[in-house]
């Protein structure tokens, strides 16, 4: 049959790139050819950076954000407001909220959202760990900053229901962020407005 022949090693490289989120077959091919256009030293540096990041980065035992030091930079910062916890889906969202520069509280990373379609249930997320952080009475408000898509909304409502009996103020970020989009794609000003305009959940 037709179709371009690729050497097995090239096919393997393209397959690996194809595993990245948002990378289709065409982009995977372009990335593979780009890598092969680099010098051997550049490719070795690229590979070493991947391996090094994977070996070095670990989960913060407090907020579960990816970090190279434990606890992470935010959790160990004594100037942060410990009465506030902003709940996000992944570490990329922590960096997005930090870019907005207005938020001075702590974070909690769930590592996903509730999605029965994709087989992600509440017990697959770091929800037990969040509840454990709320037992000492120091936290006064939990900001639910999950993505404004169906899964993110489902997760926020589920958490709000769990938190209500604890008597902790539970708020949801405002929808300056378009529904169906991701937090990490929002610009800093939009995110700052979304945090500023958060509303308390009933």
Structural class: alpha/beta
Q: Averaged pLDDT, please?
A: 88
**Low-confidence runs of at least 5 consecutive residues:** none
Level of helix content? Answer: 40-55%
Major sheet: size, sense and barrel closure?
5 strands, mixed
CATH topology of the largest domain: Dna Topoisomerase Vi A Subunit, Chain: A, domain 2
Strand order of the largest sheet: 4-3-5-6-7
Number of strands: 7
The total domain count is 2
The geometry reads as elongated
Order of helices and strands: HHHEEEHEHEHEHE
Tally of alpha and pi helices: 7
Give Rg in angstroms: 20 Å
Distance between the termini: 61 Å
Name of the top-level CATH class of the largest domain: Alpha Beta
Description:
The chain has 202 residues and is α/β, with parallel strands linked by helices. It has 2 domains: 49 residues, Helicase, Ruva Protein, domain 3; 135 residues, Dna Topoisomerase Vi A Subunit, Chain: A, domain 2 (3-Layer(aba) Sandwich), CATH 3.40.1360. It has 7 helices and 7 strands, in the order H-H-H-E-E-E-H-E-H-E-H-E-H-E. A 5-stranded mixed β-sheet has the order 4-3-5-6-7. Helix 4 crosses helix 7. The chain is elongated and about 60 Å long. The termini are far apart. The mean pLDDT is 88.
């Amino acid at each position: 049959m037709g179709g371009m022949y690729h050497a097995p090693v090239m096919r393997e490289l393209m397959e690996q790139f194809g595993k990245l989120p948002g990378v289709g077959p065409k982009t995977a091919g372009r990335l593979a050819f780009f890598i092969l256009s680099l010098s051997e030293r550049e490719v070795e540096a690229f590979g070493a950076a991947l391996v090094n990041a994977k070996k070095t980065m670990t989960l913060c035992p407090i907020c579960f954000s990816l970090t190279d030091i434990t606890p992470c930079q935010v959790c160990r910062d004594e100037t942060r407001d410990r009465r506030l916890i902003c709940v996000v889906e992944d570490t990329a969202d922590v960096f997005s909220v930090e870019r907005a520069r207005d938020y001075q509280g702590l974070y909690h990373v769930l590592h996903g959202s509730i999605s029965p379609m994709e087989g992600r249930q509440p017990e697959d997320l770091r929800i037990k760990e969040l509840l454990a952080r709320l037992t000492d009475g120091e936290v006064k408000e939990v900001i639910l900053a999950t993505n404004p898509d169906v899964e993110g909304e489902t997760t926020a409502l589920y958490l709000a229901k769990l938190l209500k009996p604890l008597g902790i103020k539970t708020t949801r970020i405002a929808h300056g962020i378009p529904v169906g989009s991701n937090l990490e794609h929002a610009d800093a000003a939009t995110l700052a407005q979304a945090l500023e305009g958060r509303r308390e959940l009933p």
